[in-house]
Specification:
alpha/beta, Alpha-Beta Plaits, 5 domains, five-stranded antiparallel β-sheet, 23 helices, binds iron/sulfur cluster
Length: 570
């Protein structure tokens, strides 16, 4: 099976939001990056919508569609009825104009396929002796097959409206027709290439992909788009499919208080109902289940960000415009049969000892240590420990543990540093004042924290660093009142609006340098004195030796002068 959702690793900031949002924990973290675990994923698209970095990318088949058009294929579009909830300023007639201008042979509504499916549901409601679960929603189908395999037999044995429409179109227009479904759903991309359903659909786009395509089209961007209002044979009731209660409405009278027929939307609600069904706590005749909140109008591939009531109202309005009440199909209803097979996700579980060992790696030795804060993306520390054991999570995803570890490391370094480390905010108010600072400047941290550093030292260089955001290094600063000579580094930290001042006490070093210098000068003076004395003796016998001795004296005195000059320069 091919991945539908991939992660762009460069964009993934390791925030664990996708892990948190995934209802079935199908996200694995490897080397700090999150990726979808294909076998576990039900393609609900929550991780795509939730990712703040847009790191999750949905497979885009737009190029395949463009190629089919460029090759002159007989391309027909099947548009999901939630289209009216996805685009505010574009009518169905205008969309038909645009797609035909791009080479489409025909543009129809998937609601035609929904009408065929609806007939099967109506008959199941009368005849089935088990609770039937609707299977228009591929996320629900995957959820049941993978996580409630015992309910697989309850899934209605009928294809989705998309597949039904694909088959109807190919029957009507020829098997060489290239059918493109456009809808709000990411899971439909996988359904479109499901081997069991092969041949009905050739490509699937989301409304987001359609939006991208239209924005490249000059007629959409610049012009007034005429309506192509070919009379539509689409039953109005089938247009209700993308809203909650819409599937039931298409084939039966439905009353909210009727416990025999249930409508459920939103993944958590679906899971609650399936849990109850699995435990035989309820036994309705029919369950209309849609994974997205509010139904398909809340699908992950919808560009319009209006609220659910607005989108719902648009679908209802569109449905009521239809003049068609009934459709007959050339295909026999058996053409829409579908067999569902359970694909249970089998997860091995660690032993209690293994869980405790993993918890201990993040400092959790007792129940009280388990904060269950959810920052790792899992709802409890134990759940995360199990995921670590299963290879889905990493030990260092525990944010409180990593934070306290980093803090204790940095505190250890700061507390034990021989350098004074002072942190001030942009107003020079002291935020940190380590023990070496206390010793150097004779102030206690408790008394100076939050007060102005200007009371202790001149802050003009720090203010300059704040203003220019420049790092200042190797600055020599003296504090004569404390007999202190220092070398300082100033580091502005723009993102935290702070400045770090690191001060090294070089008083002792300077004192030693001065003493060394003094010894050198004394040595040189001594040497000069000895030379002078020796020269005095030598002068007495100068007559015997001539001018050579005088030249030697001059040369030696020059040398002494040079040594003095060099040391003075130092
Ligand atoms: S698509 Fe849904 S099930 Fe799949 S990884 Fe994302 S959030 Fe989880
Ligand atoms: S509710 Fe509709 S859009 Fe959402 S996952 Fe199901 S079929 Fe797709
Ligand atoms: S304490 Fe750590 S492991 Fe526990 S839930 Fe929070 S982040 Fe996850």
């Amino acid at each position: 099976m091919k991945q539908v959702i991939t992660t762009q690793k460069v964009n993934c900031q390791d925030c664990h939001r996708c892990v948190r949002s995934c209802p079935v924990k199908a996200i694995g973290i490897d080397s700090g990056h999150a990726s979808v675990v294909l076998d576990k994923c039900i393609l609900c698209g929550k991780c795509v919508v939730e990712c703040p970095q847009q790191a999750k990318k949905v497979e885009n088949q737009l190029e395949i569609v463009k190629q089919a058009l460029a090759d002159g294929r007989k391309v027909v579009f099947s548009i999901a009825p939630s289209f009216v909830a996805a685009f505010k300023d574009l009518s169905f007639g205008q969309l038909r104009t645009l797609l035909k201008a791009m080479g489409a042979k025909a543009v129809e509504e998937t609601a035609v396929g929904a009408a065929a499916v609806s007939k099967v549901y109506a008959s199941l409601l009368e005849t089935a002796d088990y609770p039937v679960i609707s299977c228009c929603c591929p996320v629900v189908t995957r959820l049941v097959e993978k996580y409630y395999p015992n309910l697989t037999g309850n899934l209605a044995p009928v294809v989705s409206p998309m597949i039904a429409h694909g088959r109807i179109l190919k029957e009507k227009m020829g098997s060489d027709t290239f059918v493109v479904f456009i809808g709000p759903c990411i899971a439909k991309i996988a359904e479109g290439r499901d081997a069991d359903l092969a041949g009905a659909i050739d490509a699937v786009l989301t409304f987001d992909h359609l939006q991208q395509w239209l924005s490249e089209t000059p007629l959409y961007s610049n012009g007034i788009i005429p309506e192509d209002n070919v009379a539509l044979d689409t039953p109005g009731l089938s247009r209700f499919f993308p809203i909650t209660g819409g599937i039931l409405k298409s084939f039966t009278e439905h009353d909210e208080t009727d416990t025999n027929v249930i409508t459920v939307h939103g993944l958590q609600n679906c899971m609650d109902v399936f849990e109850c069904l699995s435990n035989w706590e309820i036994s309705p005749r029919f369950v209309e289940a849609l994974a997205c909140d509010g139904g398909c109008i809340g699908g992950p591939g919808i560009p319009l960000q209006s609220g659910t009531p607005v989108k719902r109202a648009r679908v209802v309005h569109f449905a009521r415009q239809s003049q068609c009440a009934h459709l007959d199909f050339a295909l026999d209803s058996s053409a829409f049969d579908r067999h569902h097979a359970a694909e249970p996700v089998i997860s091995l579980e660690p032993t209690e000892i293994e869980i405790r060992e993993i918890l201990a790696k993040t400092g959790k030795f007792t129940k009280a240590d388990e904060k269950n804060c959810g920052a790792c993306g899992y709802s409890s520390c134990r759940e995360k420990a199990v995921a670590v054991w299963q290879g889905l999570a990493e030990v260092d995803m525990c944010i409180p543990y990593m934070k306290s570890r980093a803090e204790s490391f940095s505190n250890m370094v700061i507390d034990n540093s021989l350098n004074a480390i002072i942190v001030v905010d942009e107003n020079m108010l002291i935020q940190e004042f380590n023990p070496a600072s206390e010793k150097m400047f004779g102030h206690q941290v408790d008394l100076v924290k939050g007060t102005s550093l200007a009371r202790i030292m001149d802050c003009s260089d720090l203010l300059y660093a704040v203003e220019t955001q420049q790092k200042l290094v190797a600055r020599r600063v003296e504090y004569p009142e404390r007999s202190l000579i220092t070398e300082q580094m100033i580091l502005p930290v723009r993102e935290h609006k702070m400045v770090i001042l690191i001060i090294t006490d070089i008083s002792e070093r300077e004192k030693q340098d001065q003493e060394l210098q003094k010894v050198k000068m004394e040595t040189i003076d001594k040497a000069a004195e000895i030379i002078n004395r020796q020269m005095h003796v030598a002068q007495e016998i100068a007559g015997l030796l001539g001018e050579t001795t005088g030249e030697t004296k001059a040369a030696l005195l020059d040398l002494v002068g040079l040594l003095k000059e060099r040391d003075t320069r130092k």
